[in-house]
Specification:
2 domains; globular; 8 strands; 3-stranded antiparallel beta sheet; about 30% helix; about 25% strand; Rossmann fold; 5 helices; about 200 residues; 5-stranded parallel beta sheet
Length: about 200
C-alpha cells in the first residue's frame, strides 16, 4: 500500500502539485492520465521518495519499491545483466537467475550494453529492472512509450499479474488503449496545478 496525503510541491515558485491525496492499496492499480508537463512525473517521484514534497506525507507499507522512470539511468559501460544486478536487494536468493529470467521475459540479451540499445530496448531494460526486485509497490512512468504492440501487450500482462499477486501499482501513461488489459483505476488530471481529492 502507498498513501499520498495532502501533498504540495512547487518548483521555482511554480506550484506543480496542490493538496493531493491518493491511496493505492495492495492488489490495486492506479493510472494518472493528463497533459504533458502538468506534473504527473513529479507526483510519481514524490511517491517514490526521490523528490521531497513541500508539505504532506508519503506512507509506504513496504520498503520494496520497483521504479521505472523515463530517464532510465543505465550505467553505459555495464552490460544488461550487470545493470540489473546493481538494483537487486543484497539478500536476494539466486540474483543472477532472477535477473536473467526478467531479461529473457523482456527479450534482452544479458551481454548487450546501453549504447547498443534502441529506445525500446532501454525502456524494456528499465521495466525488467523494476520487476526483478519483486516489489510490493511498483511505480512506472510511461511504461508503454517506445514499445511496439507486442511489448506493450507483454508489459501490460506483467503489470496485471503483479497486481493480481497483491501488489500496489501506480503508473503514468498517455496510452489509455492498453489500460483495458489491466484492472486499473484511471485518475484523469485536468487541473494545473494537480489536485487530487481522496
Amino acid at each position: 500500500m502507498i498513501i499520498l496525503e495532502n501533498i504540495t510541491k512547487s518548483i521555482n515558485e511554480n506550484m506543480i502539485v496542490k493538496h493531493c491525496t491518493l491511496k493505492i492499496g495492495a492488489g490495486e492499480a492506479v493510472c494518472l492520465c493528463g497533459p504533458s508537463g502538468i506534473g504527473k512525473t513529479t507526483l510519481l517521484e514524490i511517491a517514490a521518495g526521490l523528490t521531497e514534497p513541500d508539505t504532506g506525507n508519503v506512507h509506504h507499507e513496504s520498503d520494496k519499491l520497483g521504479c521505472a522512470f523515463q530517464d532510465d539511468a543505465l550505467v553505459p559501460w555495464l552490460n544488461a545483466l550487470d545493470n540489473l544486478l546493481l538494483v537487486m536487494p543484497p539478500k536476494t536468493d539466486n540474483p543472477k537467475k532472477i535477473a536473467n529470467l526478467w531479461l529473457e521475459r523482456f527479450g534482452l540479451s544479458p551481454d548487450i550494453k546501453p549504447p547498443k540499445m534502441s529506445g525500446g530496448m532501454r525502456r524494456r531494460m528499465g521495466l525488467a529492472r523494476a520487476f526483478a526486485v519483486d516489489p510490493d509497490i511498483l511505480l512506472l512512468d510511461e511504461p508503454f512509450a517506445f514499445l511496439d504492440e507486442r511489448w506493450q501487450d507483454a508489459t501490460a500482462h506483467c503489470m496485471e499479474k503483479h497486481r493480481k499477486d497483491g501488489n500496489a501499482l501506480l503508473l503514468v501513461s498517455h496510452q489509455k488503449q492498453f489500460l483495458n488489459k489491466i484492472n486499473c483505476r484511471i485518475v484523469n488530471i485536468k487541473e494545473d496545478p494537480i489536485h487530487i481529492k481522496p
